[in-house]
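Protocol step 4 of 6: record predicted structures for both targets in the notebook before any analysis. Target 1:
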Amino acid sequence: MTEKENRADRPAHRAGTSAEPPAGTVPPNSQPADADHGLGADVIEVRRIAFGTAEYELALKLRDEVLRRPLGLSIADDDLSGEEAALHIGAFARRRGGAEARLVGTLLLRAAGEGALQMKQVAVDEALRGTGTGRQLVRFAEALAARQGYGEIVLHARETAAPFYDKLGYAREGERFEEIGIPHYSMRKPLGGAPE
């Protein structure tokens, strides 16, 4: 991917901030993990996904399977405008030493006001839930956002997912509300500086 293409597929960020990690690298707190979760996978690698690629299409399919179909919805009915400007992140499972990897998790980040990004569409393959894959995705997203100069991440967490974000240091704000027919909480987390 050229630097111009790389800049084109991410939200604008504040001037004077450090560059994001090179494509294919994993920021601190999100290193590839040894695992075997019934998929024959030995390694989970988290990395950026470019908009409009085959990997992006796989991410859409996973989002549909995990987040929409269980509610009787389809991602084909979602408004995906603006996704070309979002940061897309994927978790890939592969056998140790193997070249072939399978997308098992995804999320996206969108600009959400001055100095903030909104984390959206966090989806992990059902077979890998509870294995740390979601945590790796979120930590990668946080490190990427911080390196680009963002000060916080905000999100709307499904009520069933809110405890996951609680454990990662996100704070609930306001009352529970309904979105896409299910209960959610607004949550946020400041980035940079706070030890884990």
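Target 2:
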Amino acid sequence: MRNVETISDRSGSISLQRSPQLFDSGYDLPLIQAFKKIRYGAFAGLPSRDTLNVDLLLKAGALTRCHVLDVRADDPENFRFEFYGADARIGAGGFRHHRVGDHESLLLRRYACLEYSRIKGLGQPDLTQVHIDTAWSSTTFRRLILPFGERGEVTHFLIFFEPVAE
């Protein structure tokens, strides 16, 4: 596999396979189409947090498989979930209003901090296939992060995921 990174500790490992050509990859989720319309339509540039609403999520069929993450803090451990989808069960359900740093698993917390910081710095959408293998869980999913912001600064992520059959 190309573009693969691995994060590991004694509790397990997380492998990330990036899709560098997100919009040219042929992977055409309804959510990507909705984001393209916002980003390249009347609201050229980084979409505002105000454009991110439940209607967009419902149209994309993504409401239960997404999170909205406030990334305005300098420390990624202090990024806070504004919305945490009902189907999101990796380590903790009901994570709404919690910080990334509140996650019990050091491995998952480290992974999230590294990834979210990287994507915030780039200000670009990111599509990655993620495989998590720990003593308590083994799962693979595709994760799409769409950045939203104000005045050219990333303030929020819409994080969408879909399970991958193993």
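Step 5 preliminary note on target 2. The chain is about 20% helix and 35% strand. The chain has a mean pLDDT of 74.
Proceed to step 6 after PI sign-off.
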